[in-house]
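Human:
Class, as today's exercise, you are to examine the entry below, and be ready to discuss the fold:
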Amino acid sequence: MKWNNSFALGIEVIDAQHKKIFERLLAIENAVTKRDPWHILRFQLDELAAYMKFHLAVEEAMLEIIRYPGRSEHLESHARILDQVAELESALKENSKAEDLVRFFENWFLKHVLAADRRYAEYVERELPALMEPDGAS
């Protein structure tokens, strides 16, 4: 799965982070396709998991700052995502299929980002349109 502009929320910093998540996911897909050794796949997974934690923290801070009304539910979904990532990391250590990992992240992106994140982007566009402008400029 590759990034396309239909995934963009219109919040520059969040879209840039989503693109980086895609880059890391693509690296994992390539490692799986090439049947790279386990340690390379593990490194790619660690990179993706660390970046996701960073991204989710940024997103959570933004939702708090803008006082997004649905933030508690959104934060709960982030907690579930991080739990699932931890489970997948454990499964991968136990020689689980790497393809399952790729599928999980693709499904997460489609369900979470294109649904839940789109809802807060609509809120931002309505309530704080300056955040939707390039570089946050008004």
The helical segments are 12-33, 38-65, 71-93, 98-127. The mean pLDDT is 84.
